[in-house]
Write a structure and sequence with these properties.
Blueprint: E1 2-5, H1 13-21, H2 27-49, E2 61-66, E3 71-76, H3 83-91, H4 98-104, E4 129-137, E5 146-150, E6 155-160, E7 167-174, H5 184-195, E8 202-204, E9 207-208, H6 225-235, E10 244-250, E11 256-262, E12 276-280, E13 283-286, E14 301-305, H7 315-320, H8 322-345, H9 347-352, H10 354-367, H11 369-375, E15 381-382, E16 389-390, H12 392-399, E17 410-415, H13 422-430, E18 435-437, H14 443-450, E19 457-461, H15 483-496, E20 502-507, E21 516-520, H16 522-532, E22 548-553, H17 558-563, H18 568-585, H19 591-607
Parallel strand pairs: 2-8, 12-14, 17-18, 17-19, 20-22
Antiparallel strand pairs: 1-6, 2-3, 3-7, 4-5, 4-7, 5-6, 8-9, 10-11, 11-14, 12-13, 15-16, 21-22
Helix pairs in contact: 2-5, 8-11, 10-11, 10-14, 15-18, 18-19
């Protein structure tokens, strides 16, 4: 029998483990099962090289819960350890200075995860245990099985034992504070979370609970579309089928595998982030992949696996790590290349998926200039009538003749609510203009940003001005009214429209245009739109009144009829009704004003002969 003290460069490692790991103590399952996997994988390697000549037999790792004795055992049939190896790997803890560690992570709270990074995986068992036993027998012929015992102090014992099979059993005697882990359901959930795709069979309650060969570990050439879809169901059993997927497989200058799925998302769909799981050699790490995956792809689903991502370190270190930056850039490029390939190879299918794809593409174009350069080729704008799509270059080619303003900028006319803005759309279409839809939650931000990045382009909402003025070409029509008639009409509107935020102008428009057209300032409307979705910089615009321009079409024949009326009161009511109709078309007539409009309309209809 051997007695001794665990040799570390600090007085006692256990208070440090408990202090810094207590908030994440379920991780002990991951660490101990991962160690068992490592031991099994090493034995498989020895068998492949011919050093281990016996049959491998059943190499499944077992997790055994004994409620009566309050123990959890992790049992493997891997390489095991000799007494000397136990002394080397367990007693001589590779911990380079507790003081250095404490200073490095000072001020970061008690959630710093040091497991693995400092070689302390096994010692995580003491977070939940009052005593830990190791029963182990080496794969090497003729070696003695031993038992290591420790009660959480630096003191340990090693004794010879009889053990019929090679491998290692870690027996944790659960302490009172951690008895929550003596629950079948809790252990099962932890195993599902951390061990679902480990490369060695894991058994719990007599059943295998993991898939050792998940789809991302295979070559794309080995997988069918059905394989990818089945794996998606394995990850998200209740989710709708994905649109498509991207298989990542890189071995230089870093190691990275994984599958990213594009979920089906509509413009009204509730968006869910944190659906990408990060693994390291098939060991689950986290679903917080913000620094590894570009922000605009955080809505994707799937798995990323890379042993080159630094684990168990602070977020600030993650952000600065060169491998993380390279992986982030590679994922961006891979996604852009895939979308470009889909667009070029099967544009109709790409267009069918655009409602979902567009959200990712627009977000990426706003936030990542490298992605923007590639996405300009496959970003699409859908015609307001639906079914026809344009790239920006295609839209420019089709609208160059009619939609270039006096500054030489191409005006992209768009609608955010085609049904509500129908009268403006029809007026613009009558002039031969092309109107596209921008009606998703991201479009306000997209337009404001992309307008500064696309050269010689200006976005104008279809209801931002009267159709004649949507494209500022300095082409003006004359009024058919005399100067006296124009003054009379101006006076009539002046008596009825008294709000300070409404500017009334008389202009000679097409006779078939609306008699009164209400438009809102494009700048002010954009700011209010941004404020409505939480744009802090523009928030103060939310409480400001709308800047409204009320354009009176002096060439509409209805005004000659009104001016010929002998009854001034009726003239005023007719003019007010025309103004209210225009306000109503923009949802700007509410409350008492709307009630007055309805009553006035009924009254006017009653006076008609």
């Amino acid at each position: 029998m051997q007695k001794g003290a665990i040799r570390v460069q600090t007085e006692n490692i256990f208070p440090i483990i408990k202090k810094f790991l207590y908030s994440d103590h379920e991780i002990f399952i991951r660490e101990l099962v991962s160690n068992a996997v490592d031991a099994t994988q090493k034995l498989k390697t020895l068998a492949r090289t011919g050093e281990f000549k016996e049959e491998l037999g059943d190499i499944a790792i077992e997790v055994i819960l004994d409620k009566e004795n309050k123990t959890i055992t992790i049992s493997d049939r891997g390489i095991g350890m000799t007494a000397e190896e136990v002394d080397k790997y367990i007693n001589q803890v590779a911990f380079s200075g507790a003081e250095e560690f404490l200073n490095k992570y000072k001020g970061q709270g008690e959630n710093v995860n040091i497991i693995g990074h400092f070689g302390l995986g096994f010692y995580s068992s003491f977070m939940v245990s009052k005593q830990v036993d190791i029963l182990t027998k080496s794969w090497k012929p003729g070696t003695q099985a031993v038992k290591w015992e420790c009660d959480g102090s630096p003191e340990f014992t090693i004794t010879d034992i009889e053990k019929p099979t090679r491998g290692t059993d870690i027996v944790m005697h659960i302490n009172e504070e951690s008895e929550e882990f003596l629950d079948d359901t809790r252990i099962g959930a932890i195993l599902q979370k951390f061990c679902k795709f480990l490369p060695v069979p894991i058994k719990y309650n007599g059943s295998q609970i993991n898939n050792p060969t998940p789809a991302w570990t295979k070559k794309p050439s080995e997988l069918t579309a059905e394989d990818y879809q089945n794996f998606y169901k394995e990850l998200y059993p209740f989710a709708e089928a994905p649109l498509f997927w991207i298989h990542l497989n890189v071995d230089f200058p870093f190691n990275l595998t994984g599958i990213l799925y594009f979920p089906k998302i509509s413009k009204t769909h509730e968006i869910q982030k944190d659906k990408i799981n990060l693994y390291s050699n098939q060991v689950y790490v986290t679903d917080e992949v913000k620094d590894i995956v570009p922000e605009f792809l955080m809505l994707l689903h799937g798995v990323i696996d890379s042993p080159d991502i630094p684990l168990n370190v602070s977020r600030s270190y993650l952000q600065g790590d060169p491998n993380v930056r390279k992986i982030n850039a590679h994922i961006t490029k891979k996604v852009a290349d895939k979308l470009d390939e889909m667009f070029r190879n099967d544009r109709p299918s790409f267009e069918e998926k655009w409602e979902s794809i567009g959200l990712f593409v627009k977000y990426g174009m706003i936030t990542d200039d490298k992605f923007l350069d590639k996405a300009n080729k496959f970003h699409l704008m859908e015609d307001v009538d639906g079914g026809k799509f344009y790239t920006v270059e295609e839209y420019k080619a089709e609208t160059a003749a009619l939609q270039t303003n006096k500054e030489g900028k191409q005006v992209i006319l768009y609608a955010t609510a085609p049904v509500q803005q129908d009268s403006y759309i029809q007026a613009a279409k009558a002039k031969g203009f092309k109107i596209v839809k921008f009606e998703t939650i991201i479009d306000a931000a997209f337009i404001n940003t992309i307008e500064t990045k696309w050269e010689n382009v200006q976005f104008t909402r279809v209801d931002a001005d009267i159709a004649d003025h949507l494209i500022d070409t300095e082409d003006k029509k004359d009024s058919v009214l005399t100067a006296d008639q124009e003054k009379s009409l101006t006076d009539l509107f002046g008596t009825q429209i008294t709000q300070s935020n409404i500017k009334v102008t008389l202009q000679g428009l097409s006779a078939d245009a609306q008699p009164v057209i209400v438009t809102r300032s494009e700048f002010m409307r954009r700011m209010k739109d941004m404020a409505s979705v939480g744009g802090a910089a523009a928030a103060w615009y939310a409480n400001m009144p709308d800047e409204i321009t009320m354009t009176v079409n002096a060439n509409h024949p209805i005004y000659l009829n009104i001016l010929e009326q002998g009854n001034v009161e009726k003239q005023q009511k007719l003019v007010r009704n025309l103004a209210d109709l225009a306000l109503l078309s923009q949802n700007l007539l509410t409350g008492a004003d709307l009630t007055a409009f309805v009553n006035r309309s009924v009254e006017l209809m009653g006076t008609e002969k």
